[in-house]
Amino acid sequence: MPFPPSPRTPPGPRRRSLLASAAGAALLVGCSDGSDSAGTGRGTSAADRARARAARDSEGLAERYDAVIAAHPGLAERLRPLRDEVVRHARAFGGGRKAAEASPSVSPSVSPSVSPSASPSVAPSATVPGSEKEALAGLAAAERALADRRTRALLDVPGELARLLASVAAAGAAHLYLLTEGDG
Question: What does pTM read for this prediction?
Fold first, then answer.
């Protein structure tokens, strides 16, 4: 048999609960603001650096897709939509001009150059593997490394950029699945 509620405790939330909820809501709003509330510019410059790195990484990944498509034209239909999405990611981060100008119709003997600012884990290889399966595995590894790095970076960037990084990391995970689909 259940006991009736104590007559001393009024129904509804207590004052402490309401104050704690209000403080928590204020913290959440402050966290997702995206601006540097201290006015030091430190948060903004860190966000700008993270955005620029994300753009370079996406551009490097698009170049890698271009190299694989050039070396293995039979994969072009499968890879072009993924490559186009990577270019859109670069644009979303404020880059993408270099990746958008690159043409996947480059001759297979021409290897794309690696800029010093490109991340080594997503920069185009000097040579593309000879087999399609190995080339796809290389792209999948680059997508995995980049998605993992972007996921780790979420804690270090302000709200709006964190949401963009999370979205693009999720897209990278989807690309990884599409690249490895059928390899089981």
Answer: 0.64
